[in-house]
Specification:
Length: 252
């Protein structure tokens, strides 16, 4: 299936093997105009819930769903990003963190975020996640949460098996994110909170401290907010893969 081009269609629109699926105008344009597929041409459907399905293009905006050829289980260790809204590059963060293996994205309206409610584009962000899934050939679509205030997002009750890290700058004695993850015991969820331009306010830091968020650093340089989020996710994904390889059974 690796050689077939993929589109993501959610399970709510899929009726099962051998059933027809009505394509949206965007999906039809991509398959017929961009990929230049013709009726009878094969492609693949990703359902965003771990499933990869064979498919065949039909005429008049329809496709036929084929057999499910792969069903991937969800990650046992989830990667969650809480991201303060930023004026530029938020969509870059959405796309690149999805490619890096993000499982949940929680946008935050921080006190220093310069983006007002009219600048929030959840439908566009959802589309970016879907396109990134198709591009990087992952089978699970990350969950996009509604925008909340930073204090509300950082003040949620901490669940068992959860590691919380909040990125900070210009503070002495703060451990590197990689060091914290290397020393962490196996958990069910790693969360990283990255602030907007200008960083966190004192009120937001106090809320984080009261709810189990450990300050971490991403290195000696002051990074752009978008760079910090992307590099932080890269570190988290690397450590998750390392743990997965360590816990894998040996070949016999």
């Amino acid at each position: 299936m690796a050689e077939l081009r993929r589109i993501l269609i959610t399970p709510q629109r899929l009726a099962g093997c051998g059933q027809d699926v009505e394509l949206t105008s965007d999906e039809r344009h991509y398959l017929e105009k961009v990929l230049r597929l013709r009726p009878g041409s094969p492609f693949a459907i990703v359902d965003g819930q771990g499933g990869l399905h064979q498919a065949e293009l039909r005429s008049n905006g329809w496709a036929q769903q084929g057999a499910c050829v792969e069903q991937q289980p969800p990650q046992q260790l989830e990667l969650v990003l809480l991201m303060g809204l930023i004026r530029r590059d938020f969509e870059v963060v959405v796309r690149m963190t999805c490619e890096l293996g993000l499982d949940q994205l929680r946008p935050l309206q921080a006190q220093r975020s310069v983006v007002e409610s009219k600048g929030q584009r959840p439908q566009r962000w959802q589309s970016q996640l879907q396109e990134a899934c198709e591009q990087c050939e992952r089978l699970w679509l990350p969950q996009l949460h509604p925008v909340s205030s930073a204090i509300d997002g950082l003040s949620q009750a901490k669940s068992a098996g959860e590691l919380r890290c909040i990125g900070v700058t210009r503070e002495a004695g703060v451990p590197l994110l990689a060091e914290v993850l290397e020393a962490a015991s196996p958990t069910q969820r790693w969360q990283l909170a990255c602030g907007p331009e200008g960083g966190w306010t004192d009120d937001e830091r106090q809320a984080a401290a009261a709810h189990g968020w450990q300050p971490v650093s991403l290195g000696p340089n002051i990074l752009r907010a978008s760079t910090a989020a992307i590099s932080g996710l890269a570190v988290m994904q690397h450590q998750r893969q390392r743990l997965s390889a360590t816990n894998s059974p040996p070949f016999l």
